[in-house]
Specification:
The chain is of the alpha+beta class. It is 12% helix and 22% strand.
Protein backbone atom coordinates (compact mmCIF):
# COMPACT_ATOMS: atom_id res chain seq x y z
CA UNK A 1 0.00 0.00 0.00
CA UNK A 2 1.00 3.65 -0.11
CA UNK A 3 1.68 6.06 2.73
CA UNK A 4 -1.50 8.01 1.99
CA UNK A 5 -3.70 4.94 2.55
CA UNK A 6 -2.47 4.23 6.11
CA UNK A 7 -3.61 6.15 9.19
CA UNK A 8 -0.92 8.10 11.00
CA UNK A 9 -0.13 7.44 14.67
CA UNK A 10 -1.58 9.68 17.37
CA UNK A 11 -0.84 10.39 21.02
CA UNK A 12 -3.26 9.95 23.95
CA UNK A 13 -4.94 13.25 23.09
CA UNK A 14 -5.48 12.21 19.48
CA UNK A 15 -2.78 14.53 18.12
CA UNK A 16 -0.29 13.35 15.45
CA UNK A 17 3.11 12.28 16.80
CA UNK A 18 6.52 12.57 15.05
CA UNK A 19 6.69 9.59 12.70
CA UNK A 20 7.82 8.28 9.35
CA UNK A 21 6.42 5.81 6.86
CA UNK A 22 8.28 2.50 6.63
CA UNK A 23 7.84 1.04 3.12
CA UNK A 24 8.94 -2.43 4.22
CA UNK A 25 6.43 -2.63 7.09
CA UNK A 26 3.74 -0.65 5.24
CA UNK A 27 3.16 1.31 8.43
CA UNK A 28 4.02 4.54 10.19
CA UNK A 29 6.64 4.22 12.91
CA UNK A 30 7.52 6.50 15.81
CA UNK A 31 10.37 8.84 14.90
CA UNK A 32 13.13 8.32 17.48
CA UNK A 33 16.05 10.56 18.30
CA UNK A 34 17.65 12.67 21.00
CA UNK A 35 18.71 16.25 21.67
CA UNK A 36 16.04 17.51 19.31
CA UNK A 37 17.31 15.55 16.29
CA UNK A 38 15.95 12.44 14.65
CA UNK A 39 18.07 9.37 14.07
CA UNK A 40 19.54 9.02 10.62
CA UNK A 41 21.12 6.23 8.62
CA UNK A 42 24.05 6.86 6.29
CA UNK A 43 24.14 5.41 2.79
CA UNK A 44 27.04 5.01 0.39
CA UNK A 45 27.06 6.21 -3.23
CA UNK A 46 25.42 2.94 -4.33
CA UNK A 47 22.52 3.37 -1.91
CA UNK A 48 23.67 0.73 0.57
CA UNK A 49 23.52 1.44 4.32
CA UNK A 50 26.94 2.24 5.82
CA UNK A 51 27.99 -0.02 8.70
CA UNK A 52 29.60 2.60 10.97
CA UNK A 53 30.85 0.09 13.55
CA UNK A 54 32.78 -1.82 10.87
CA UNK A 55 34.07 1.41 9.36
CA UNK A 56 35.34 2.66 12.74
CA UNK A 57 37.02 -0.69 13.45
CA UNK A 58 38.68 -0.69 10.02
CA UNK A 59 40.01 2.85 10.59
CA UNK A 60 41.31 1.91 14.03
CA UNK A 61 43.09 -1.12 12.55
CA UNK A 62 44.58 1.02 9.77
CA UNK A 63 45.86 3.66 12.21
CA UNK A 64 47.37 0.96 14.42
CA UNK A 65 49.09 -0.59 11.39
CA UNK A 66 50.51 2.79 10.36
CA UNK A 67 51.70 3.50 13.91
CA UNK A 68 53.41 0.12 14.17
CA UNK A 69 54.98 0.07 10.71
CA UNK A 70 58.78 0.08 10.73
CA UNK A 71 60.24 2.72 8.46
CA UNK A 72 57.54 5.29 9.14
CA UNK A 73 59.01 8.01 11.32
CA UNK A 74 56.90 8.45 14.42
CA UNK A 75 56.51 11.93 15.85
CA UNK A 76 57.74 10.66 19.22
CA UNK A 77 60.96 9.26 17.72
CA UNK A 78 64.09 11.33 18.13
CA UNK A 79 65.71 12.70 14.98
CA UNK A 80 68.96 11.03 13.97
CA UNK A 81 72.07 12.76 15.34
CA UNK A 82 73.19 15.71 13.25
CA UNK A 83 69.84 16.24 11.50
CA UNK A 84 68.11 18.41 14.05
CA UNK A 85 68.47 21.91 12.59
CA UNK A 86 65.31 23.32 14.08
CA UNK A 87 65.88 27.00 14.82
CA UNK A 88 69.23 27.05 13.03
CA UNK A 89 69.92 28.91 9.82
CA UNK A 90 72.51 27.71 7.37
CA UNK A 91 73.82 30.17 4.79
CA UNK A 92 74.58 28.18 1.69
CA UNK A 93 75.60 31.03 -0.58
CA UNK A 94 72.35 31.06 -2.54
CA UNK A 95 70.61 33.81 -0.58
CA UNK A 96 69.83 36.76 -2.84
CA UNK A 97 67.86 38.97 -0.42
CA UNK A 98 69.16 40.52 2.77
CA UNK A 99 67.28 42.67 5.26
CA UNK A 100 68.46 44.61 8.28
CA UNK A 101 67.43 47.27 10.77
CA UNK A 102 70.11 49.65 9.44
CA UNK A 103 72.99 49.83 6.97
CA UNK A 104 75.21 48.48 9.76
CA UNK A 105 73.46 45.11 9.27
CA UNK A 106 74.47 44.94 5.61
CA UNK A 107 77.09 42.25 4.89
CA UNK A 108 80.21 43.22 2.90
CA UNK A 109 79.36 43.34 -0.83
CA UNK A 110 82.15 40.90 -1.70
CA UNK A 111 80.73 38.20 0.63
CA UNK A 112 77.39 37.84 -1.16
CA UNK A 113 76.51 36.74 -4.67
CA UNK A 114 76.58 39.37 -7.41
CA UNK A 115 73.05 40.69 -7.82
CA UNK A 116 72.05 40.13 -4.18
CA UNK A 117 70.00 42.96 -2.71
CA UNK A 118 69.85 44.57 0.72
CA UNK A 119 66.92 46.53 2.11
CA UNK A 120 66.68 48.44 5.37
CA UNK A 121 63.44 47.26 6.95
CA UNK A 122 60.94 50.10 7.01
CA UNK A 123 62.70 52.00 4.21
CA UNK A 124 61.68 50.19 1.05
CA UNK A 125 62.35 53.23 -1.16
CA UNK A 126 66.11 52.51 -1.24
CA UNK A 127 67.33 49.12 -2.47
CA UNK A 128 71.03 48.27 -2.57
CA UNK A 129 72.47 45.67 -4.94
CA UNK A 130 75.86 44.03 -4.76
CA UNK A 131 78.08 44.17 -7.86
CA UNK A 132 80.56 41.87 -6.14
CA UNK A 133 82.66 44.75 -4.82
CA UNK A 134 80.29 47.48 -3.63
CA UNK A 135 76.65 48.00 -2.72
CA UNK A 136 75.02 50.12 -5.44
CA UNK A 137 71.72 52.00 -4.96
CA UNK A 138 69.28 50.72 -7.58
CA UNK A 139 66.13 52.53 -6.47
Amino acid sequence: MAYNTIAIKKDVDGKPIPQYYNDLQDAYEVLKGRNGASRVELYDASGNPVDLASLINALADLLTAIKDTAGIKKIADALPAGTNNIGKVTVDGSTMEYYGASLNDRPPANTVQVGAIFVVVGNYDVIYQSNGTDWVVIS
